[in-house]
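queue> pop job 88
queue> type: inverse folding (structure -> sequence)
queue> payload:
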């Protein structure tokens, strides 16, 4: 994952330089939007780089390294900032492309998802993580519907982007429905890690402000390593790629 973080940084630099070279290909307002998307991608790249170097799993309070920043609270703050930056990229693109309804719908869904994530971390109740990831899945469906609605009004490179976006959204939904959400539901049903003895917010906050438990047994990481790997590679590459997508605005 550290190698992926380094590669992601190189890809972001390449994307930034490519965008600068092709400034003349965009109308001024669209280019300004692409610069904003580039900045949001930087937030996502840096957030995922931090979490690649200092991996943590929130509910069991485990991490790979014993350092002063190896605290679940720190990791969750970084994750929240990165995820909201990625979500904002899609909201901006949907509005630019002429799908404002989809943008308006996914905004509260993703804010709610972040809220459920924090509740899961504080209480150690994996059901809230299942809800969080279900909301992310629903948001992907809504965003895909918004993008698909633009097909008949778009041609050329725009349709290529729409097709790629729909393929990525479809793969994401399949993964979430078949692996990610069932994983958290399974942990909740099995009472992992604390049975039904969930924490209150105050007690949970005290825990996540403390150093997490160092765990280097691969068996403890194996299940989470699947989504962590995809999160820190494929999702980051998508975020970086969004900075150079063609404008779908007023494409006939």
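queue> result:
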């Amino acid at each position: 994952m550290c190698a992926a973080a380094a590669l992601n940084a190189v890809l972001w630099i390449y994307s930034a330089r490519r965008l600068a070279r092709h400034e003349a290909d965009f109308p001024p307002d669209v280019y300004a939007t692409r610069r904003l998307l580039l900045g949001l991608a930087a937030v996502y790249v840096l957030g995922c780089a931090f979490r690649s170097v200092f991996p943590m799993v929130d509910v069991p309070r485990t991490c790979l390294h014993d350092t002063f920043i190896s605290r679940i609270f720190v990791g969750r703050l970084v994750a929240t900032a990165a995820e909201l930056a990625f979500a904002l990229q899609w909201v901006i693109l949907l509005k630019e492309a002429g799908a404002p309804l989809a943008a308006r719908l996914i905004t509260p869904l993703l804010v709610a998802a972040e809220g459920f994530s924090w509740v899961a971390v504080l209480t150690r109740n994996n059901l809230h993580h299942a809800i969080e990831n279900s909301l992310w899945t629903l948001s992907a469906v809504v965003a895909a519907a918004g993008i698909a609605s633009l097909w008949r009004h778009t041609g050329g490179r725009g349709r290529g982007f729409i097709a790629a976006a729909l393929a990525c959204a479809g793969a994401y939904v399949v993964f979430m429905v078949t692996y990610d959400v069932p994983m958290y539901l399974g942990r909740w049903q099995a009472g992992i890690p604390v049975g039904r003895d969930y924490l209150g917010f105050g007690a949970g906050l005290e825990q996540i402000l403390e150093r997490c438990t160092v765990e280097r047994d691969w068996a403890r990481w194996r299940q989470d390593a699947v989504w962590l790997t995809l999160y820190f590679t494929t999702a980051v590459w998508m975020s970086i790629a969004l900075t150079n997508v063609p404008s779908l605005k007023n494409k006939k």
